[in-house]
Amino acid sequence: MSDRFIVLSGCSGGGKSTLLEELRRRGHRTVEEPGRRIVQEEMASGGTALPWLDLAAFARRAMAMALADRDAMQGEHGFVFFDRGLIDAASALEAHCGERVIAALAVEHRYNRTVFLTPPWPEIYVGDTERRHGLDAALAEYDRLESVYPALGYETVILPKVAVAERADFVLARL
């Protein structure tokens, strides 16, 4: 476990990436969401490990990328903020395929006990070429993550719907 590894999870389109950028701007180490990076790579190469084409392949690749991200950050000092992580990808795989992978991974690859969740925020939710699912799918994902993290022994903290600077202040004060 690394108490320095902080996960920002929650609803798609809830402001995680914007918060991550603010934390990076303030000098913290950050790791971009595996899913976005995979979608960009797959679209550029004509690949099919995309959530709307092959969710299982996408989730497996996201899990591998999340593990590699953790390994790459082991030598970093101070907090490292992850836009999603291993548990998000593993829970997507379990929900889609029924493969039981979360429990084994969650014990061996722990993050900080406190996980910050971005709640559904329809006013800022925007789909794009990389986020093709609608708000209904984002809400279902949020509901799943809101129950998965506590079941694994994490304390979830719901982020307030405030300006990004205030959100960053909130996260840093909570830590």
TrEMBL record:
Lineage of producing organism: Bacteria, Pseudomonadati, Pseudomonadota, Alphaproteobacteria, Hyphomicrobiales
Protein name in the entry: AAA family ATPase
Signal peptide: none
InterPro entries, sorted: NadR/Ttd14_AAA_dom, P-loop_NTPase
Bilayer-spanning residue ranges: none
Domain NadR/Ttd14 AAA: 6-167
Species assigned in the record: Shinella curvata
